[in-house]
Structures are given as structure tokens and as C-alpha cells.
Design a protein that fits this description.
Elements: E1 4-5, H1 9-30, H2 37-44, H3 47-51, E2 55-56, H4 63-79, H5 85-95, H6 100-110, H7 114-132
Parallel strand pairs: 1-2
Helix pairs in contact: 1-4, 1-6, 2-4
Length: about 130
């Protein structure tokens, strides 16, 4: 059963948030040895395939789907260094001790907070501005 509908605006926004969450988690798990931009871009290419079963209505040409997911994942992966090293150490110690599913569930709850939603909204607006231009 699909969790996200790619033709609905709310489905795209929710999918974007999920990809942001996964990108953030990947960065935390890589901390303190984060990937550079090129490595990050390469790593992001598998994420759309990992999420595909959770998304309906992608259509035959999946380039827009792939762009949305990889943009969100890369953006939030690359955002981790903006946090303080102390915050990153704490997050890494907590999330690395969990299974991937547990860590994602915890981050999803944390990303429901107003500040996190504002960051996701801002990133999504930037994505829309760049892709609709």
C-alpha cells in the first residue's frame, strides 16, 4: 500500500519530508565522516528506488519523482554540518544505537516540531521555485 501519492500536492510534500528525514539520518549515521557533495549526490541516487514501493502515481517517466527525492535527501544530508558538533555527537550517539526503522520513527516525530517543519517548508519552497522556473 502506498503512503504517498505523487500526483497530489500534499503527497509530494509528505514524500519530500520523508526524503529529508532519510537524508538527515544518513548524515547523522555518517557523522563525523560526512560525504562530500559528489559522494552525497552518488549516495542519493538509490533513495528513490528504496522509497518507490511507498509511492503511487509516479508515471512512466520517473525523472520528476527522482529529482524530488534526491533533492530533499541531499539538501538535508548537507545541512547537518550547520548544527553544532555537540548536537551532532548527541544525535549520533542516540540514533546510531537504534535500528534504522527506530531511528526514522524518532526523527519523523522530531521533524513534526514547528522549527523542523519550517525548515522542510523552506526547502520545499526552494525546490518548487527551482523546478517550476
Amino acid at each position: 500500500m502506498a503512503n504517498y501519492c505523487f500526483v497530489e500536492a500534499s503527497g509530494k510534500r509528505a514524500l519530500f519530508a520523508e526524503a529529508c528525514t532519510r537524508g538527515w539520518l544518513a548524515a547523522v549515521l555518517d557523522f563525523p565522516r560526512l560525504k562530500n557533495r559528489e559522494e552525497c549526490t552518488a549516495a542519493a541516487q538509490i533513495v528513490p528506488d528504496e522509497l518507490r514501493a511507498e509511492v503511487c502515481c509516479i508515471g512512466g517517466d520517473d525523472s520528476a519523482y527522482r529529482l524530488l527525492v534526491t533533492s530533499a535527501w541531499i539538501g538535508f544530508y548537507m545541512a547537518l554540518p550547520r548544527e553544532t558538533e555537540r548536537q551532532n555527537v548527541i544525535m549520533a550517539s542516540v540514533l546510531k544505537a537504534m535500528s534504522t526503522d527506530e531511528a526514522l520513527a524518532r526523527l519523523r516525530r522530531a521533524f513534526l516540531e514547528e522549527e523542523a517543519q519550517a525548515e522542510i517548508d523552506s526547502a520545499y519552497k526552494q525546490y518548487l521555485d527551482q523546478t517550476e522556473a
